[in-house]
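Today's session is about reading a structure prediction critically. Students often jump straight to the picture, but the first step is always the sequence itself: look for stretches that repeat, for charged clusters, for runs of hydrophobic residues. Only then move on to the predicted structure, which in these notes is written as discrete structure tokens rather than atom positions. Here is the chain we will use throughout the hour.
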Amino acid sequence: MFGIGMTELLLIMGLALIVLGPKKLPDLARALGKGFAEFKRATEDFKHTMQEETRIAETKERLMEDGKLTPPGAADPLSEADITGGVNPAPKKTETPEQPVAEKSQTVTTTDTDAAEKNEEIVAEKESSRRSDHV
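Below is the predicted structure for this chain, in token form.
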């Protein structure tokens, strides 16, 4: 263990007992144990992360070699293809003839005129009800 023999280990433990005393030594041992456990957890987490990243990189490389994945910035070979289905398929383009601008403006004016007429009728009804209340 770290190149320390049994006699050196006993000497270090004896010095620690003399310097720290019997009351503080258990607290020190507990703190050292927690520190070593945390260090071990951190190294295991690091190893796991490195293995996961390596696996992801290998999978990505294999998919690129098989042609199932395109690298960033490359032309998409399927961009011109008509793809249907999938999780969120693109909405299909329906060809609807556009209304000429003149027809659109007439529709808007007709709607505006109808709304204006309805507003005038409502105002007229309110005024007539007020007049009948005053009489």
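Discussion point for the tutorial: The helical segments are 6-20, 25-66, 101-134.
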